[in-house]
Design a protein that fits this description.
This is BIG2 domain-containing protein. This protein has a 4-stranded mixed sheet, with no helix packed on it. The protein has 247 residues and is mainly β. The chain is built from no helices and 22 strands. It folds into 3 domains: 11-60, no CATH class; 66-151, Immunoglobulin-like; 157-246, Immunoglobulin-like (Sandwich).
Length: 247
């Protein structure tokens, strides 16, 4: 190896992995395949202060191991929050087992070894890895292949279980019990409720207020109640819906 300090003082070298490379003086001996960090040091003397260490990465290919490839033609585009788990299919030329890893478990996580469970929305990279080693009486090098894509948010709408997309207008009397308008968040793609909570607001607190998620009648008059759902990491905000209450 060749390296110099501006002081002219001699350098020492170290290897982070003696199973891959050892160092004697400035000569590196390669012992196995893999990656090691080679660090040059100069600790200084009575005149010169020590220099900052400099590290370089040494990658050694083990010629006793055969190279392999991962072929991953599966498309993961167009996925959205709420989709079913996706079975990942990335075969290796060695026929060895593939493991998968997610870059962001808040967007997607690996379950059952080879399935992507969508947990949110956003950019994600899933990496397929074959660890190498002895497979079918042949030694193989490790290999990895990343695949980047984006999980989209799902849409939601606010509906009523009886009247559908239109929230019914209501007539109430002073003294009536507080009532739940029964608006709900619904996923029109999966055709199922999302389970997300609806919040309500009143246009006139002198006629009706919102108490613990229910409409509380205050006095005679007409009031507009707005139902909203602000969205989550997996769902876009719903378009607000309104209905009137005549007291």
């Amino acid at each position: 190896m060749e390296a110099n300090a501006t002081s002219g003082l001699g350098l020492t070298f170290t290897s982070s992995d003696s199973g891959i490379a050892t160092i004697s003086g400035n000569v590196v001996t390669l012992l196995g395949g893999g990656t090691a960090q080679i660090t040059a040091k100069q600790q200084g003397n009575a005149i010169y202060a020590g220099a900052a260490d400099v590290t370089q990465t040494l990658t050694v290919q083990d010629d006793t191991q055969q190279a392999q490839t991962i072929t991953w033609t599966q498309s993961l585009s167009g996925k959205r929050f709420g989709d079913a788990d996706v079975t990942l299919t990335a075969p290796a030329s060695s026929t060895g087992a593939i493991t998968y890893a997610s870059s962001d478990t808040a967007v997607g996580t690996i379950v059952s070894g080879n399935k992507l469970k969508i947990t949110g929305s956003g950019a994600i990279t899933v990496t397929a890895t074959q660890a190498g080693g002895s497979i079918n009486s042949q030694e193989w090098q490790a290999v990895s292949l990343p695949k980047s894509f984006t999980i989209a948010k799902s849409t939601q709408i606010i509906v009523h279980p009886s009247t559908g997309v239109v929230l019914p207008n209501l007539s109430k009397s002073v003294g009536d019990f507080d009532f739940d308008p029964y608006a709900m968040s619904f996923d029109p793609v999966s055709n199922a409720p999302t389970g997300l909570a609806i919040t309500y607001s009143s246009s006139n607190a002198n006629v009706a207020t919102i108490v613990s998620g229910k409409v509380h009648i205050v006095a005679v008059g007409t009031v507009t109640i707005t139902a909203s759902q602000a969205g989550t990491s997996g769902y876009d905000a719903a378009t607000n819906k309104t209905f009137t209450v005549t007291v």
